[in-house]
Amino acid sequence: MSTEKPIKAKYFEKDVQVLRLAKGALPLDHKTASGLLTVWDQGNVQEPQLLGFGGTRYEVVLPGGHTSIRIVFAAYKDSVVALDMQQQAQYTLAVLDRLAEIWGNVAHREADSIRYEYRNPGGLGRLQDAVSQELGSCEIEAPAQHRQAYTVLTNPLEKYDYGTFCYFAGVPPAGRKAIQHLLAAPASDVIRAVLRSTNPQARVYAVEAMLELERGGASISELDRRAMEKIVELEIPISVCEGCLVYQSTAKEIFARAGHE
């Protein structure tokens, strides 16, 4: 039985309003996080997450009628460096066809959403340089078989928790799946690169993975050990999941609980 619902004019008007609000911020070159938050202040703005080293991730949801627009973006010292935007529909997918015409060729239609993506290579490079300045550099070309895991673990826009068995279904978060893939290889050079990720949860996963490799007989260089120590001492919130419980912690507290003080 189909769950597709008819398009209602008053709801569609709201969908168009939030589309124009979201699209009105484009183009994003030279835009600031504070400026975007001012433009989208009528949306549901989530608590920003510090990425460390001058980086911050933001999330805003603009509610429409049949749809909503979820916006995730990262900034380095207030300059926007990356952004993903999705206008999603659940029960009235046909509305996306009409909205896609208004978006034009700046966004692309997917099965149940319309997606817009922005990356500023220079800005992302400056954010990565800030991380590397503190943690050391480890530039690699991830092998094809590890590229998906590497992308999940090095994307500042990826949102996942640190944990093993989480949520109602007791499943591993995306970051856990990705680091387990690298450990199974084992892809030690890729894990070393993830230590320098712009994603804070990924860095914690990488420290844990390096310690596991060491227990298996691998040696850790002084450069990597100093990076691991700095990550553990970094006083920024890490999102942790244990079953259905999701809470904020620090890397130091995480490893203290695990017996790795």
List the helices and strands and how they pair.
Layout: H1 9-23, H2 33-39, E1 44-45, E2 49-52, E3 55-63, E4 67-76, E5 79-89, H3 94-103, E6 108-109, E7 113-119, H4 121-135, H5 147-154, H6 174-184, H7 188-194, H8 200-215, H9 222-233, E8 238-242, E9 245-249, H10 251-257
Antiparallel strand pairs: 1-3, 2-3, 3-4, 4-5, 5-7, 6-7, 8-9
Shape: elongated
Query: What is the rounded Rg?
Result: 20 Å
Question: How much of the residues is beta strand, in percent?
Answer: 15-25%
Number of strands: 9
* Number of separate helices: 10
- Domains counted in the coordinates: how many? 2
* Sequence of secondary-structure elements: HHEEEEEHEEHHHHHHEEH
Query: What does the main sheet amount to?
Result: 7 strands, antiparallel
Q: Helicity range of the residues?
A: 40-55%
Alpha-beta content class: alpha+beta
Termini Cα gap:
56 Å
Uncertain ranges: none
Mean of residue pLDDT? 95
Question: Describe it for me?
Answer:
With 261 residues, the chain is of the alpha+beta class. It folds into 2 domains: 9-124, no CATH class; 137-257, no CATH class. The chain is built from 10 helices and 9 strands. The protein has helices at residues 9-23, 33-39, 94-103, 121-135, 147-154, 174-184, 188-194, 200-215, 222-233, 251-257, and strands spanning 44-45, 49-52, 55-63, 67-76, 79-89, 108-109, 113-119, 238-242, 245-249. Strands 1, 2, 3, 4, 5, 6 and 7 form a 7-stranded antiparallel β-sheet that branches. Strands 8-9 form a two-stranded antiparallel ribbon. A hairpin with a 2-residue loop joins β8 (238-242) and β9. α1 runs parallel beside α3. The protein is elongated, with a radius of gyration of 20 Å. It starts with 8 loop residues before the first helix and ends with a helix.
